[in-house]
Design goal:
The structure is a homodimer. The first copy, chain A, has 14 helices and 26 strands. With about 650 residues, chain A is α+β, with helices and mostly antiparallel strands. In chain A, a hairpin with a 5-residue loop joins strand 12 and strand 13. The longest helix of chain A is centred in the first third of the chain and has 24 residues. Chain A is globular. The interface between A and B is large, with 68 and 68 residues. Chains A, B: It comes from Microbacterium jejuense.
């Protein structure tokens, strides 16, 4: 691990004190269109306004006004963590303002910050649900109260704002600092031996430490991380693994318990490990990431198998049915993977980020940006009825996207991820720039020694697999362009076409391909990823989808949806020997329909095989685009007829 | 459907006003040993005392004393439905006294009844959790309050007592009548348009109507049944299907929602349909039973796929992982099937009862009768740690049996089922007796026209498949002995050996085999069921166990347990061509071990097959006998190597 010479802090969500790769923020990377640019546009033009409108109509913003007016607890609305949605929204606004410089959003952010500021107590305490006469005491319910969790999101919002508008006079950073000082006083080494039942304050404190330079916040984050796993919280029905208080972070084997909590804690622990130079902790987190990816992650990148406790299942327990795969767990997984990627540069972490972005985070919002999946099942058995677009849904609904939830973490979590997405595209090290995600983009940065790097990315990926990197300006000295070659992309090729016409082409094995040269204006590096649809089989130990295949194309997992199949998907199977093929811009497979009458008792002697019926071709849909054409049934894992 | 001439009410849990078959109660059928006799002994000698002890130590019996002393709500303990466990226990005591005439149990029952009686309000209201200053108002929370549910269990207990000790002066029937009169006044046709969020009062009222002859209780049961499905209750996160308030009972397609609630409601609806002659309703219930058995039932007979809401899944959603298969849902399924069997005589209902008794109800208790499974998973991935035998467990624990639960319906539900099990063995119709379950037993009854039927059953079933029915005494006239041939018993044979030595043997196809003759003392009818272990495959639409087989032997589902396999079961697969075989009193299969190193990302290209490793023989264990030798992993569905 080498020290980074970060002359100016990146306009990015995570800016570690050290690490193999240095993040490039919104000032240095700009997504200019394409798959992700479109989503950023919808996010900025529709989702942010939708969230503001719901925060008002649900009364969650109004809670702050009631706090300021001194009338709480009367009329307080929403769950105990409702404050946090306001903070996630503020973070999303901060990134969107950084991205677009929209004055209307700037006005909106300042108005929200003013309402939050008015609710803060003189000693820095800030929460609308605790501490007043008629409310429970401050910090009296660390298991479920979410007070520190809410503050963690406040700190992330303040860090986002400070990175995008350093020194702004809106007051957000001051609010965060006053609250963080109180947290340090209350929960410091000499204070309460407590942690929050929902990790998040750790990552918030680490980021606040980075933007303020105050080491106390990092130390407080470290204390919170280390206190996990010692039975610090009271036990609950699902066991202390639910909030990762069963095993110390550095001793754990895999992520476990509530999947959002687990990823947020791992992210905060990674921040602490990197900034304090705790390589033992960082190594433990890497091993947990490996094990979690190998045994507890859906093919979509989704994590969390249980509805009941929104938790990881045991190893290999990955049911397609009722896969919980919470949108926010996807966001948390990206947070964790990104931190490990910055620390160590392992391209597999960028692979998982890509997979999760396309197949979890992008699956959540409807095309109009005003309805969301909270959970992302891999098998929908019942079509459901059209959602009432004005209703607030129970959180675990998975048949149709809903505009809002009683527990509504997903919409603002998606919003802050999309608004900051430019910062996940590329990084730099001492000798060049690494492209991790492929989107039309412009990249302009200066390496530590002053070498200027400037290029544009031209691509319609993932529609096609051609990614063109066009150098802008003549470089004074050689530098290295690194391109990620996804693990699925066997047979990828890279071709360098010099502005002068020379061509050099070679195979690019999965992992990373590097091109080092003194780039001239107009030099083109083209990476061509093989985009033929492919059949994917699960590890034999994933019991729930044995005998099934998934179809993938590039980074996208595909799905079989009833509106395309012309039939319920429950009786369809991949015809023997069928190979997916592209035609008319879609991927088709041959299926047979094994519909039969009920046998009465559905278990019987083995060995009865009927002659398979005739097959027919059906088109698939990108998983992230399912459920956009009315109620339907859907499956990602398709039985393979034998 | 023919009217039954029931001269004396059977000493049995369900005595309908009419139906194809007449129940034979404890006076007429006595289990004399064997598999079920042993369990009845443990139940009587250990489980009942264990339950009494826990009801005292948990304070659930003490709640009644506090109610009588007027000190509630102070010190009330347990959940809102704690009263019901006392009533289920009373029902179990009543049946056990009927079975054994144990004076110590009689004393115990009277003492408990006296404590319950002292808690009843002057107007008949009886519940320790509602209606007093400092408690919620009576009937103010029908969704979750369980007041009527508790009374339903009181009514079932009173019916059990009246059938086993008619006219007893213990006072239990009077308590029930006073409470039922209040229910009728409160919820009658002119009263509150309400139902209970947990069905049970329907079946209790129907039974109370039968023992008292008071038609008002049947009418009240009918009203409660009919009020389901009209949005009578407030909506909840999981939807009104949770308490079957989504669709009227007569319009429903299958059981759905909370699996215990669903089966209790269906049982009460069947009682109402039969006693009021509502054949349309009865037909609807039969169709729901068919559909539920065909699409929503585990191979063990277990029902309920979800941990979150303890509910049925959608059609074909039957994950082995975390199969909830609550013990009480098994009890409820037996209640429902038994009522349909009495009404229509379909032997498939007796098949399901047998399967559920062996593989759900018998699986719950430990051999010592003092620890229980609440849920009955079909796949245990993690061994768990040895249970603390004194601790009260969270209810959904499925790795090790626990002595008691916060929601402790299962122990007394198992107890009342075992104590009344004699009454599920045989029935009568106008021309004879039907044997539904096979156990060593003596059967003595008189048919409607006065013909005397007397025989003993000699068998060590399910150890072997030979069931000998030995006639006792010379019958004055011919009568028909009907024997159930389970659906799995292809190739069964029946042999009649006259006392004089004549032998008549023939094949007995699955369903029912009848022997009609003027039985002489010593005549033997022997049914021989094929007990060779067999491989069973699931319907292709049960996604979660595709590519797997189960092994069954007679009525018992077998399981592969790590303590036998000498390895964790997650990597074992049935060797190609392996056929289960009996040796040394156990069933063995050949398995191969497919243990491999993690691939990093567990999804990859199809078509990679390695040469299978060498196979080895491992013994299986009866599913009901798993987890009796320390922590283990286990699976019922075994992957079939290809």
């Amino acid at each position: 691990m080498t020290m980074q010479n970060t002359t100016t802090a990146a306009q990015a969500p995570v800016v570690p004190a050290r690490g193999r790769l240095r993040p490039l923020g919104q000032r240095e990377v700009r997504i200019t269109g394409g798959f992700w640019g479109d989503r950023q546009s919808v996010n900025g033009s529709a989702t942010l306004e939708h969230i503001q409108s719901r925060l008002e109509s649900e009364g969650w913003l109004g809670n702050f006004d009631r706090a300021a007016a001194g009338t709480l607890p009367e009329g307080r609305r929403g769950r105990e963590f409702a404050d946090s949605e306001v903070y996630k929204y503020l973070e999303a606004l901060a990134w969107e303002i950084g991205r677009t410089d929209d004055p209307a959003l700037e006005t909106r952010l300042r108005a929200v910050v003013a309402r939050v500021a008015a609710a803060q107590e003189p000693d820095g305490y800030l929460n609308t649900n605790f501490g007043r006469p008629g409310q429970a005491d401050r910090w009296s319910n660390l298991e479920w109260g979410h007070e520190l969790y809410c503050l963690g999101h406040l700190f992330q919002a303040a860090a986002a704002r400070e990175r995008t508008r350093p020194g702004s006079d809106d007051g957000l950073l001051g609010i965060a600092i006053r609250a963080a000082d109180l947290v340090c006083a209350e929960f410091g080494a000499d204070g309460r031996d407590g942690i929050c039942g929902h990790a998040e304050v750790e990552v918030g404190l680490a980021e606040l430490s980075r933007v303020t330079g105050d080491p106390r916040y990092l130390e407080q984050a470290r204390l919170f991380v280390e206190r996990h796993g010692h039975g610090t919280l009271r036990d609950i029905e699902w066991g202390r693994s639910y909030f990762q208080d069963d095993v110390p972070v550095r001793d754990a084997v895999a992520l476990r318990g509530h999947a959002v909590r687990a990823n947020y804690l791992a992210s905060g622990a990674a921040d602490v490990a990197v900034d304090t130079g705790d390589d033992e902790l960082l190594g433990a987190l890497r091993r947990q990431w490996e094990r979690t990816v190998a045994r507890r992650t859906y093919v979509t990148g989704g994590q969390g198998s249980h509805h009941q406790d929104e938790a990881f299942g045991e190893d290999w327990e990955l049911p397609a049915d009722r896969a919980y795969s919470e949108t926010c767990a996807g966001v948390g997984s990206i947070m964790f993977s990104w931190r490990l990627l910055l620390a160590g540069g392992d391209p597999r972490q960028a692979d998982l980020i890509e997979r999760t972005l396309y197949n979890v985070v992008a699956t959540s919002p409807a095309p109009d940006g005003r309805a969301f999946f909270y959970a992302n099942t891999l098998h929908q058995r019942v079509p459901g009825s059209p959602a009432d677009r004005d209703a607030t849904s129970p959180r675990a609904s998975s048949s149709l996207r809903a505009p809002w939830f009683e527990v509504s973490c997903c919409p603002p979590n998606v919003a802050r991820t999309f608004a900051s997405l430019d910062a996940y595209v590329a990084t730099a090290d001492d000798d060049g720039v690494q492209l991790h995600q492929y989107a039309p983009a412009s990249v302009r940065t200066t390496l530590a020694d002053g070498r200027v790097v400037a290029f544009d990315v031209e691509t319609d990926y993932p529609a096609s697999g051609a990614i063109r990197v066009v150098s802008r300006g003549d470089a004074a000295a050689p530098w290295t362009l690194s391109l990620r070659v996804p693990a699925w992309a066997s047979g990828a090729r890279v071709r360098v076409t010099a502005a002068g016409g020379d061509v050099d082409e070679r195979e690019a094995a999965p992992g990373t391909v590097e091109v080092r040269r003194a780039f001239r204006d107009g030099d083109v590096v083209e990476l061509v990823l093989p985009m033929a649809p492919r059949l994917t089989a699960p590890d034999d130990r994933i019991d729930a989808v044995r005998g099934c295949v998934a179809v993938e194309r590039g980074p996208e997992v595909l799905a079989l949806e009833s509106v395309d199949a012309g039939a319920d998907v429950s009786t369809l199977a991949l015809a023997p020997g069928s190979v997916p093929a592209e035609r008319d811009g879609r991927v088709w497979i041959e299926v047979i329909d094994r519909a039969t009458a009920d046998a009465g008792w559905p278990y019987g002697p083995t060995g009865e095989t009927a002659r398979p019926p005739a097959s027919r071709a059906v088109p698939l849909v990108a998983y992230h685009a399912w459920a956009q054409r009315g109620p339907s049934t859907m499956r990602v894992w398709i039985p393979a007829a034998t």
